[in-house]
Amino acid sequence: MDRFRGLTWDHPRGTDALREAARRAREKGEIDICWEAQPLEGFEARPIAELATRYDLIVMDHPHLGDARADDCLKPLGPTFGSLLEHWQSDTVGASFESYSDRDGQWALPLDAATQVMIRGARVDTPPQTLEELFSASKSLRTVPCYAGPHAALMFMALCAGLGTPCNTGRSERFAEPSTALEALDVMARLAHRMEPRQWDLNPIDMHEAVAAGNVDLCPWVYGYAPYGRPGPGQVRFSDVVRLHPDGVLGSTLGGTGLAVTRKATITPALIDHIKWLMSMESQKGLIPVHSGQPSRKPAWEDEEVNQAVGGFYNDTRRTTEAAWVRPRWPGYTAFQATLSDIIRTGLRNRDTASTVYARWEGVYQSAIGVPA
User: Fold this and answer.
1) Res. 372: pLDDT tops 70
2) Which H or E element spans position 237?
3) How many CB atoms lie within 10 A of CB 231?
4) Which domains can be identified in the chain, with CATH numbers?
5) Of 316, 88, 12, which is closest to residue 307 (Cα–Cα)?
6) What residues contact residue 124 under an 8 Å CB cut-off, 6+ apart?
7) CA-based angle 314:315:318, to the nearest 5?
8) pLDDT digit string, tens, across residues 257-303
9) Is the pLDDT of residue 373 over 60?
10) 67/60 Cα distance (integer angstroms)
11) Which pLDDT value is given to residue 371?
12) 291 contacts 16 by C-beta, under 8 angstroms
């Protein structure tokens, strides 16, 4: 029996379905995949090249593609899956499939589609629809933005997209247009005004837990975790994000996960069949959502039974997910994202002016894209 070692991220959404699929395949004598897990912070920031020397399969975030390609540590999937890639692309939610491709091919398959959405607890019957409604709600509701780790930068990018001038995805002169950046930072500062010290460290999983426990009423932009929508005590409810302008887009920054095959792996018929099954409708509508996962294919998102199991999560966040902005994928981007987030979070905590915060990252960005100081 073929044996493989895989790495995913340490949350039921990232582990349970993959491990259950591996268990079933092992029992049938088809393939043996051992799935290990790393913390969410490792998934967001740990270099793929380092991991690819030890694992055959890696569940990755699309911004790591630039570094992975520069280090030539992944196998292209076109030669293995051929025309199936076009089929999967045609019914994947939003840009989840395209986020793992470049002009040289497809480098991962979207097992999981996600973006920043609005989450709320039992005290919030009707979610705010506009920025002004959000600011008004924040006066009486415990409204906490997600600024931990890379998420201050990710929310900044979502706001820029929602304001109509997304950040640049290539190595452009500026990462963000100045007036849009200042407006986005002002929104973030207004939402941070009442944050308690411990709330600055809440990552998306922590934020869902806080809402479920009744300690937070509303988080306006945070990566959605469908399993928290299961009906019952502590149910988290989900909505599209607010529009920043009446005719504006639903600004968010694409997340989700992709399954990549490293150069270390030997691709066998059994591995191909297993990956095909993970992408199949049987798995996307059944195994993945039943075992705490979050599918990527449209028919699963549109399925009423899948929706009912998680309080309508997919129907209620579909528009935002379809509109989500794809982050840069150039080598060195993820390190820049981490630095940018730290600059923004520090500035917000210190209540620095938006122009001061913006000025701090310009030199960092120029260095990241290779412009000499």
Assistant:
1) no
2) strand 237-239
3) 10
4) 2-114+255-312 (3.40.190.10), 116-253+332-368 (3.40.190.10)
5) 316
6) 137, 141, 217, 218, 237
7) 75
8) 999 999 999 999 999 999 999 999 999 999 999 999 999 999 999 99
9) no
10) 12
11) 66
12) yes
